[in-house]
């Protein structure tokens, strides 16, 4: 590859910049073959060639090496299990978690959640609706406590405050979130209690 300039001007001038777009990132050394008869090495990185003089020149490509920049590793998203049988509520929680940097694992029932766990997908925290079809939320939490105690369960419910108070007396160590959900409070609770396995 050669780059040719039309005019030569040996007078001192301000530095100029010539941009050459290359199809891939290159580190390229050019020699200016006509600047006062001396070959002057010029460096091009990522397709940009910096020239600190104005001159009519023929620059010949003398050596090229492709720069391979390995992609920077992205932090793994911590999975959060969402067990909610109501589709709108489930989608809203999935969108909130995804936008907040988590990897949601949605399930419409405790049985679906068990299938996910059987596939080796272990979340750092589980949001579990209380009134689920089949195995209810408390039964699923008891199963988690017995077989996967490293998962932090959070019971999500729209039940009355009286029932929540009764549940708290019977299950003092369970975290609760009441519907309609305060998303700011929920995200704070997740951040405080999620367990990181990575």
Quick tags:
single chain; 198 residues; alpha/beta; Rossmann fold; 5 helices; globular; disordered N terminus
Uncertain runs: 1-10, 12-67
CATH class of the largest domain: Alpha Beta
- The overall pLDDT, averaged over residues, is 74
Number of domains: 2
SS strand fraction: 25-35%
Shape: globular
Work out the helicity level.
25-40%
First-residue to last-residue Cα separation: 48 Å
Description:
- With 198 residues, the chain is of the alpha/beta class.
- The chain has 2 domains: 65 residues; 115 residues, Rossmann fold, CATH 3.40.50.2300.
- It contains 5 helices and 11 strands.
- The longest helix is centred in the middle third of the chain and has 13 residues.
- The two termini are 48 Å apart.
- The N terminus is likely disordered.
How would you briefly describe this protein structure?
This protein has 198 residues and is α/β, with parallel strands linked by helices. It has helices at residues 87-99, 110-118, 137-147, 161-170, 183-193; strands at 2-4, 16-19, 26-35, 38-45, 48-51, 58-66, 79-83, 103-107, 125-129, 152-157, 175-178. The chain has two domains: 2-66; 79-193, 3-Layer(aba) Sandwich (Rossmann fold).
Mind sketching the topology for me?
Elements: E1 2-4, E2 16-19, E3 26-35, E4 38-45, E5 48-51, E6 58-66, E7 79-83, H1 87-99, E8 103-107, H2 110-118, E9 125-129, H3 137-147, E10 152-157, H4 161-170, E11 175-178, H5 183-193
């Amino acid at each position: 590859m050669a780059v040719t300039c039309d005019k030569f001007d040996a007078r001192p001038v301000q530095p100029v910049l010539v941009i050459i777009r290359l199809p891939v990132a290159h580190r390229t050394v050019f020699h200016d073959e006509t600047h006062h008869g001396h070959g002057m090495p010029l460096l091009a990185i990522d397709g940009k060639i910096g020239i600190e003089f104005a001159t009519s020149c023929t620059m010949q490509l003398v050596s090229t090496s492709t720069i391979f920049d390995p992609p920077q590793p992205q932090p793994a998203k911590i999975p959060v299990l969402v067990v909610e049988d109501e589709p709108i509520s489930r989608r809203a929680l999935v969108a909130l978690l995804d936008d907040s940097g988590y990897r949601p694992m949605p399930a419409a029932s405790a049985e679906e959640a068990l299938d996910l766990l059987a596939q080796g997908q272990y979340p750092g925290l589980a949001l579990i609706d209380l009134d689920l079809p089949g195995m209810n939320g408390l039964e699923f939490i008891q199963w988690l406590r017995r077989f996967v105690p490293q998962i932090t369960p959070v019971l999500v419910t729209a039940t009355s405050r009286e029932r929540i108070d009764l549940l708290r007396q019977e299950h003092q160590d369970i975290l609760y979130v009441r519907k309609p959900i305060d998303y700011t409070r929920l995200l704070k609770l997740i951040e405080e209690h999620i367990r990181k396995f990575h």
